[in-house]
Design a protein that fits this description.
Elements (H helix, E strand, L loop, with lengths): L10 H5 L10 E3 L2 E4 L5 H11 L1
Antiparallel strand pairs: 1-2
């Protein structure tokens, strides 16, 4: 599955990000999914639900 990462490198980018917690945010088709860092197994289950 193709994916895109965005590294936030400035305070301004962090303040304008679409999530409150800028450490990690997972979006699918522009929809916010979670902000937690998930394990590979949990990611697989989540991916199965989304696809």
């Amino acid at each position: 599955m193709p994916f895109k990462t965005i590294r936030i490198t400035t305070k301004e980018k962090a303040q304008n990000s679409p999530t409150i917690l800028t450490t990690f945010g997972l979006f699918y088709n522009g929809k916010f999914i979670t902000h937690e860092i998930i394990s590979p197994n949990k990611f697989d289950r989540l991916l199965s639900k989304l696809l």
